[in-house]
Design goal:
The chain is α/β, with parallel strands linked by helices. It is built from 17 helices and 26 strands. 26% of the residues lie in helices and 18% in strands. A 7-stranded mixed sheet has the order 22-19-18-23-24-26-25.
Length: 756
């Protein structure tokens, strides 16, 4: 075991989450150390140091990234929250800041920040994790604690770091499970679940559920940590339906595989079939056969195949007697660290495409549950007014396969059913549902993690609910709402559902929400969403609650092109010219400039006349695409939909130096943007959380440099900005400016801030 990586204790026992209305410093410290220890303990299973630098999934980064990532996030968030005052290692806090969320199954291997590079040594990363641990423990001891800990509390960032680390315990467990088995070794104290319970789960009957009106959403005052998408509210009428009492088992799915389900296109959606063909999938990802199926690893493991049963010794699990619960078939199951006979009463683990293909194979009227139906299947819940006692994750004795009670799945009937007769509505494996991921009514982001959820509100992420055997902390809360791309793998399965009331004519109404906003993906354009649900059912089609995506339409692009390039003295031209003047008048270096909210590039092109290097950062993909095209081709034509008149932008008319500019699409201010002599902020009127874009301005502005905040609406005045920019930025000038657009002359407010 790689115990040398531990900066604390080896443990696979999880503590209960914190009640933020009553927690003490000692309880916070214990929960922090437990979160930190769980993550490190998982990595002790890697057989040697070389395994840290392997890519278990070609679409992900090497494991060393995930080992260091959570510590870097603590520092980045706690610095923003004001819980700590200084960085630990800015290079690490940049390198390990952000992972990947690939758009599709055929993305190329992703190495961020300019290509494959040399990762630091394991010893250096362990030393870094130790420094971060000690810093946080010291701050807990020396920072005053007032209760309750709420969203605007500096301690909220610390709780966020803990819950983020617990998410990555699960994320890393899936990646380690995808490693070649000879690179892992089961750690001490890791206990797999039993193969069978007292009876076999051969009959997965459908149970009827009566119609019900429900409310989804977590109150902001609830005394436990929550991610942004949990808050808000949705009131939903759920018609009667039937659902399988158990999660779909390996036994049931084996029937689909043996019937040629993976070879029959008729069972798959168009998106799902394309994925299956590309991946050459013949069975679930954690099933192992003897046919050398493609493995999916990356880097120097690209040619590895898990499917060589004869080369791997089997492990005998508790109650594995080759009876009806675990028969000797052509398939084995890859657990975290061992290969075992396929436990037929355990839930199958598949992606959304595989789950939907199985539903189609079972019959046209079978589908997955919706978010609302999943909430109904949980049965009677205690009122939220009972506080943390109403949430399963705070129970002293959780009657579900959650919180690392076992180091694997368990039989679907091992734990008792609820009063409706359903097993494993919470725990064992996550459950795919039909709804696209989206915010609830009243959704807002948190300024410490503005892009935790909202980038996934794109119609390409389906929700997952219920938690798995390794879900700890907030992950398995009754309020938790998570999502993955439909081709992702996780400890994740599904349950069969049927609608009871079938209309004689027209479509069945389904209490599901799908995102109807077209989202532009840089380099791909507007990509097709999964439309199979809408063709069969009447669902609630809703716009995304991600404000950035609301600007991805053609009309928004035309509008901002005209705003930026339609007039010589347009808003961005005026702001950029003022920035150049401020730099000259105040003796600011003209080496580097950063434009946050670069739009379609006018401001950056203007700044390039004076500054040697310009970085244009913009969250809206369609706008960045226009900037890049204009930079490359020097010309861009757009057509006004109202007048049907075409306008040609010729970059040569602007005397810009486009070779000095780098454009990036970022949904937050990441460390990789660096620090600059001048920072121009011009997009506060069209971002979800302006505070998130202002809190780091001091750090990305060089000492004695200036930040210019331009508000074309006139809303962002000095008094409104000062609390968000913080004590390290002082306003040295505030003035009005006039700019022009089609609707006439307008007044802007411009403030200049100096970093001291």
């Amino acid at each position: 075991m790689m115990t040398k990586i531990l900066t604390g204790e080896l443990t696979f026992t999880s503590l209960k989450p914190l009640d933020l209305s009553t927690c003490t410093k000692q309880e916070i410290k214990l929960y922090f150390e437990n979160s930190y220890d769980l993550n490190e303990s998982l990595f002790t299973a890697l057989k040697d140091e070389s395994a840290f630098y392997k890519c278990p999934d070609r679409l992900r980064l090497p494991l060393i990234f995930y080992f260091a990532h959570t510590a870097s996030v603590y520092v980045n968030k706690l610095l923003l929250a004001g819980f700590i005052k200084d960085r630990v290692n800015v290079e690490f806090e940049t390198m390990f800041e952000t992972g990947v969320d690939e758009m599709s199954w055929d993305d190329t291997e992703n190495y961020r920040m300019g290509g494959q590079f040399i990762w630091p040594s394991l010893d250096e990363v362990v030393a870094y994790r130790r420094k971060v641990r000690n810093l946080i423990l010291d701050q807990i001891d020396n920072t005053p604690l007032t209760l309750p800990v709420t969203m605007d509390h500096s301690w909220w960032g610390l709780i966020m770091g803990m819950e983020h680390e617990r998410i990555h315990v699960e994320t890393s467990s899936v990646l380690i499970r995808q490693l070649p088995i000879h690179l892992v070794l089961k750690p001490e104290r890791w206990t797999y679940g039993p193969v069978k319970s007292d009876s076999s789960a051969t009959e997965n009957t459908l149970l009827s559920v009566e119609a019900k009106d429900i409310t989804i959403g977590k109150p902001e005052s609830f005394p436990s940590y929550g991610w942004d998408n949990e808050y808000g509210q949705a009131e939903i009428h759920v018609p009667p339906f039937k659902a399988s009492k158990y999660l779909v088992t390996n036994r049931e799915f084996l029937g689909f595989v043996r019937a040629g389900g993976y070879k029959s296109k008729k069972f798959w959606s168009d998106e799902g079939w394309k994925w299956r063909v590309f991946k050459q999938a013949n069975h679930p990802v954690f099933w192992v056969c003897n046919n050398g199926c493609p493995g999916g690893c990356g880097g120097d493991l690209a040619d590895w195949s898990h499917c060589h049963i004869k080369d791997v010794p089997e492990k005998i699990l508790e109650n594995d007697e080759n009876d009806s619960s675990s028969v000797d078939t052509e398939y084995r199951l890859r657990l975290m660290f061992d290969l075992v006979n396929l436990p037929l009463d355990w839930p199958v683990e598949v992606n959304y495409h595989e789950a939907k293909a199985f539903c189609s194979w079972k019959g046209e009227d079978f589908r997955l549950p919706t978010e609302a139906e999943h909430n109904v299947m949980r049965g009677k819940q205690r009122p939220v007014s009972d506080g943390t006692a109403c949430d399963i994750i705070f129970s002293d004795n959780i009657e579900a396969n959650l919180n690392l009670q076992y180091g694997s799945s368990t039989p679907v009937n091992l734990f008792p059913s609820n009063e409706l007769g359903f097993h494993d509505v919470s725990g064992n494996v996550w459950t795919w549902v039909e709804d696209h991921f989206n915010g609830l009514s009243g959704f807002d982001t948190h300024w410490l993690y503005d892009d935790f959820s909202s980038p996934c509100f794109d119609g390409h992420h389906n929700m997952i609910l219920g938690g798995s055997w390794i879900s700890t902390g907030d992950e398995a809360s009754r309020f938790a709402r998570f999502a993955f791309r439909r081709h992702f793998f996780q400890h994740l399965g599904f349950r069969l559902v049927q609608t009871i009331d079938q209309p004689r004519e027209g479509k069945v109404s389904l209490p599901a929400r799908v995102v109807n906003t077209p989202v532009f993906v840089l380099g791909q354009g507007v990509t097709a969403k999964n439309e199979s649900l809408q063709t069969k059912y009447r669902v609630e089609s809703v716009p995304t609650t991600n404000l950035n995506y609301c600007y991805e339409g053609e009309d928004s692009l035309v509008g901002i092109l005209e705003l930026e390039f339609g007039f010589r003295d347009s808003g961005l031209a005026v702001l950029a010219a003022m920035c150049v003047g401020y730099a000259r008048d105040m003796g600011i270096s003209t080496n580097t400039a950063l434009h946050l909210g670069a739009g379609t590039g006018r401001g950056a092109f203007e700044l390039s006349k004076e500054f040697s290097q310009v970085l244009g950062v913009e969250p809206v993909g369609r706008f960045v695409d226009a900037s890049l095209k204009l930079q490359e081709k020097r010309r861009l034509t757009f057509t006004d939909a109202n007048s049907n008149s075409a306008t040609v932008i010729n970059l040569n008319d602007y005397n810009a130096n486009p070779e000095r500019i780098t454009f990036k699409q970022l949904t937050w201010i990441s460390n990789e943007v660096g620090s600059h002599d001048l920072v121009l902020v011009s997009h506060l009127d069209r971002v979800q959380n302006p505070k998130a874009w202002l809190m780091r301005v001091w750090e990305i502005t060089k000492s004695n440099g200036i930040a210019v905040v331009g508000s074309l609406s006139g809303e962002w005045t000095q008094d409104k900005l000062q609390p968000m920019l913080g004590e390290r930025m002082s306003c040295v000038l505030s003035e009005g400016a006039e700019y022009h657009c089609r609707s006439g002359s307008h007044a802007a407010v411009v403030t200049v801030w100096r970093h001291h």
